[in-house]
Amino acid sequence: MGYDGIYAAGIEEGGHPLNDDVTTMLLTPRIAETVKIPVVTVGGIADGRTLAAALALGAQGVMMATRFVATQECEVHDNIKQEIIRRQEYETTLICKSIGLQGRAIKNKIVEEVLAVEQRAAAWTTYSLISGQRVKDAWEFGRLTMLL
Ligand SMILES: Cc1cc2nc3c(=O)[nH]c(=O)nc-3n(C[C@H](O)[C@H](O)[C@H](O)COP(=O)(O)O)c2cc1C
């Protein structure tokens, strides 16, 4: 197609990760072994160690977003930079996957509410699909409906 390179963007990224949930660590080598053009790793890259990891996985470079938001040169409000610095690795979550608009958000009351609404909606519509009958059929009789 004439592309010069390709981004391998894993689920770790900020913004809007793809719905497929594939991690940066799996995606980079998978793409690197598949294409002949340069691969740029994206998602969770923040320092020399993660850059080195991406190179070791087969990438030619990295793209960073969140890390650059938390720099002196970035023009966003300092409150946002402080939030990025203050928060721990478990303090973000992914919301709106259920409506095909997955996005990473810092956990707070509103985000918890969004997740609860998504969960309630999912519960009503998915209970009949996850009754456990198919798992039982697979383990007892080898009926692998996931292959259908
Ligand atoms: C707050 C924020 C919002 C973003 N919004 C978008 C977006 O709307 N569309 C897009 O293509 N990328 C967006 N991005 C950029 C990508 O998701 C980017 O590839 C990703 O953040 C890189 O991963 P990293 O943040 O772990 O470095 C956004 C990034 C951040 C940090």
Structural write-up:
With 148 residues, this protein is an alpha/beta fold. It folds into two domains: 6-67, no CATH class; 76-146, no CATH class. It contains six helices and five strands. The longest helix is centred in the last third of the chain and has 18 residues, at 109-126. Bound molecules: flavin mononucleotide. Flavin mononucleotide is lined by residues 9, 12-16, 42-45, 64-67, 69.
Number of helices: 6
Give helix and strand order, one letter per element, not per position: EHEHEHHEEHH
Report the strand count: 5
Strand portion: 5-15%
What low-confidence regions span 5 or more consecutive residues with pLDDT below 50?
none
Q: What structural class results from the helix and strand content?
A: alpha/beta
